[in-house]
Amino acid sequence: MHSYLDALAAEYQSIADPKIAASQSAYMRHQFYFFGIKAPDRRQLEKPFLIKSYLPPIEELDKYVKALWAKKERDFQLFALDFCTKYMKRFREKDIRLLEYMVEHKSWWDTVDAIAYKLMGNYFKLYPQHQEKYAKKWLATDNMWLQRSALLFQLKYKENLDTGLLTFGIESLLGSKEFFINKAIGWVLREYSRTNPNWVMEFVDNHELSNLSKREALRLIK
Q1: What is the average per-residue pLDDT within 107-127?
Q2: Cα(34)–Cα(25) distance, rounded to whole angstroms?
Q3: In this structure, what are the phi and psi dihedrals at residue 147, rounded to the nearest 5 degrees?
Q4: Cβ atoms of 129 and 118 closer than 8 Å
Q5: Among 182, 104, 203, 113, which Cα is nearest to 154's?
Q6: Helix or strand or coil: residue 202?
Q7: To the nearest whole percent, how much of the chain has pLDDT over 90?
Q8: Concatenated DSSP letters for 90-159?
Q9: Residue 149: which region, alpha, beta or left (left: phi > 0; alpha: psi -120 to 50)?
């Protein structure tokens, strides 16, 4: 594991730019350090590390992801997201605990949203029997990022979206003053309006949504 991560770190260091790093950190409210690599360049650099034959076995997924999550530069956590996508069609039932860990640690929208709608979204397609259990568990916590994930994992479900579970989730969070919660409510409704605009319009009419949520929900509806 250490040779893999050390090689990745060396590649990052080889093109690190302190000026870009300062700008990236400022954009993220100085919550994280960065090497200073623009996203297209970072993804190009990471490609060899994501080649199937170079990836570790899925049994080591937890170990690698948590090691990446422990590093101070945000680039490592962003890499971990792409790293996980290489395994997501083979997720094991227990891997939901790793996804929860990723949401709960070093939490911010740049990682949480991708974990929710891409990784968790795919996990629940593999294990739909756990969907309601975990969504309700996260909604009942006081962790804003888990609550946001309970809404956003269905973001790309289209006609397979569970409207009953989405309704339960939104109603559980009505009255929240958190920007990221109200934004998520509007975002998931807006995305679903591409599939079922009438349902979204009726939902908005029948619920006291925040102005932000309502504005976002109806953005695509003429």
Answers
A1: 98
A2: 6
A3: -60, -45
A4: no
A5: 113
A6: helix
A7: 98
A8: G--TTHHHHHHHHHHSS--HHHHHHIIIIIIHHHHHH-GGGHHHHHHHHHTSS-HHHHHHHHHTTTT-GG
A9: alpha
Closest of 108, 141, 102 to residue 123, by C-alpha: 102
* Cβ pair 114, 156 in contact under 8 A: no
d(CA 40, CA 42): 5
What is the spatial distance between Cα 96 and Cα 62, in angstroms, rounded to a whole number? 11
Q: What is the Cα–Cα distance from 112 to 148, expressed in whole angstroms?
A: 8
Indicate the Cα dihedral angle 211, 215, 218, 220, nearest 10°.
-170
Coil, strand, or helix at residue 33?
Answer: strand
How do residues 202-218 score in pLDDT, each as one tens digit?
Answer: 999 999 999 999 999 99
158: CB partners within 8 A, 6+ apart: 192, 194, 195
77 close to 115: Cβ distance less than 8 angstroms: no
**What digits encode the pLDDT tens for the residues 88-114?**
999 999 999 999 999 999 999 999 999
Give the number of residues written for the chain.
Answer: 222
Q: CA-based angle 147:148:152, to the nearest 5?
A: 125
